[in-house]
Specification:
The model has no long low-confidence stretch (mean pLDDT 95). Helices cover 47% and strands 14% of the residues. It has a domain at 257-446: Butyryl-CoA Dehydrogenase, subunit A, domain 3 (Up-down Bundle). The chain is built from 14 helices and 12 strands. It has helices at 4-10, 33-47, 65-76, 80-97, 103-119, 255-292, 298-323, 337-362, 365-368, 381-387, 396-410, 413-424, 429-439, 442-452; strands at residues 16-19, 22-23, 123-126, 149-154, 157-168, 175-178, 193-198, 204-209, 231-242, 246-249, 326-327, 333-334. It is an alpha+beta fold. A 6-stranded mixed sheet has the order 2-1-8-9-5-4, covered by helices on one side. Strands 3-6-7-10 form a 4-stranded mixed sheet. Strands 11-12 form a two-stranded antiparallel sheet.
Length: 462
């Protein structure tokens, strides 16, 4: 296993990473990206064991519902890259189980997973392509590079070209799990490529964006200052991939297999995070209502009740998905597809309404409250503290801190990132609707309806 310091040193490997127009050669020392590096390094230290055969508990394969459930709080103590690594490993395990007639790829996958667990490295997920004209499939794009594809096949591997977007933490990890973004049709064999690429492989270029606060006084950003991770725009500029790192190459019937497998684990991570964050929304709504002296007002209580029901239903769907888990051919446990997708859809589709409730009960102070530094000004500090005081003797400074926290997670850069990622993580809402319908027992529902009406099914037309 690696220590935090060893992790920092591992980033000095010649990777080509860029931020706001400049190449970054010292990630740990960068004023913005370096903060995210520290978060990952601290996670390495938190879970480090010096035992020679020790393996990170963040990378183990669950074998039961209890294993699945126990893994979630463990991951919530970890950094974002631990999440992407775990879901990447489980994506590969799940995909392998769904390709029983592909022993070569399955052997490569299992060998790769074993190597990653032993090396204690971080894996990032590369799925969403640039897509170009989205009304056209990969094989009919004016620019064939709009979707990542094979441009050359050699005896020892392939060369790929394209770009993958929205790759959280791409510059901070070690491996890029690169898979097709969708099902492929006949003639699109070159786009049915699944493989793993080192971040520092020649031809890989990563352009970063970040919602990290750019403020000297981070007290104004009490949550995002300690919890941010860059988003990578990953470019594969004719990158060679050796055979042992290729898990699919041209078998179009399995192209969607990897996307569906990743979607399952991404939605589990997103749903579990939504469950925790929904409780936080409830907590902030109650706290600010008490601080404002409005906790007993009828419409405020109703909105908080809506938030409580929202949080409870998300938690219930997560529990149902774990309790009713399924098992792959190798005994690996994975969450129930119906409950995961229905829960993720409910959580993401209603998140904006719940934030609206929080904003409504909080008031405009979310975006107009003075900074904490204003309290330290000799001329206005005491006055700000006086007039920011709330009901029942609530101190002005306490109420200000609540407003800053609510703004940070719902109405600033980090809040905007949450809005978008809850909708898009694991695929947009439509993807969850499709999978939910696919796994729901529609025939059983029809039979129950007919039974309740003392009817028989209509015979099929001749």
């Amino acid at each position: 296993m690696m220590t935090g310091e060893q992790y920092r040193a591992s980033l000095d490997d010649g990777r080509a990473t860029f931020f706001e127009g400049e190449r970054v050669d010292d990630l740990p020392g960068h004023p913005v990206l370096g903060q995210a590096v520290n978060v990952v390094a601290n996670c390495y230290d938190r879970f480090y064991s010096a035992e020679p055969e020790a393996r990170s508990p963040l990378m183990g394969i669950p074998r039961s519902a209890d294993d699945l459930k126990a893994r979630i709080p463990l991951l919530h103590q970890a950094d974002m890259l631990a999440h992407t690594t775990y879901s990447s490993i489980m994506t590969l395990i799940t995909a392998a189980g769904r390709m029983p007639d592909q022993p070569v790829y399955n052997e490569r996958i299992m060998a790769y997973v074993e190597d990653m667990q032993r090396s204690d490295i971080r894996i990032l997920q590369c799925i969403t392509d640039a897509k170009g004209d989205r009304s056209l499939p990969p094989g009919k794009q004016p620019d064939p590079d709009a979707y990542t594809h094979v441009v050359e096949r050699r005896e020892d591997g392939v060369v790929i070209r394209g770009a993958k977007l929205h790759i959280t933490g791409a510059s901070l990890g070690h491996e890029l799990l690169t898979i097709p973004t969708k099902a492929m049709k006949p003639g699109e064999d070159d786009y049915a490529i699944a493989c793993c690429v080192p971040v520092n492989a020649p031809g890989v270029k990563i352009v970063n964006a970040s919602y990290a606060p750019r403020h000297e006084d981070v007290r104004h950003f009490p949550i995002s200052a300690n919890k941010h991770c860059p988003e990578g725009f990953v470019i594969f500029d004719d990158v060679f991939v050796p055979n042992e790192r290729i898990f699919l190459d041209g078998e179009i019937k399995y192209a969607a297999n990897f996307a569906h497998s990743l979607g399952l684990w991404e939605r589990l991570g997103s749903l579990s995070q939504l469950a925790d964050d929904a409780d936080i929304l409830v907590g902030f709504a109650q706290l600010i209502s008490e601080a404002n002296g409005l906790a007993r007002v009828a419409h405020v209580r109703e909105k908080i009740s809506d938030l409580i029901i929202y949080a409870t239903l998300i938690r219930a769907s997560l529990e149902a998905a774990i309790h009713n888990c399924d098992f792959g051919p190798d005994g690996a446990a994975f969450p129930n597809e119906l409950y995961i997708n229905a829960g993720k859809y409910h959580g993401a589709a209603n998140y904006s309404a719940m934030v609206r409730h929080l904003h409504d009960v909080s008031g405009g102070g979310i975006v107009t409250t003075p900074t904490m530094a204003d309290l330290e000004n000799n001329e206005v500090g005491a006055l700000v503290r006086k007039y920011m005081a709330g009901g029942a003797g609530v101190a002005g400074e306490y109420r200000m801190k609540l407003f800053h926290a609510i703004r940070d997670i719902t109405a600033d850069s980090y809040g905007g990132w949450r809005f978008v990622t809850y909708l898009q993580a694991g695929g947009g809402l439509y993807a969850q609707r499709i999978v939910t319908r696919r796994h729901y027992d529609l025939e059983g529902a029809k039979a129950a309806a007919l039974h309740s009406a003392h009817m028989e099914a209509e015979p099929a037309a001749e």
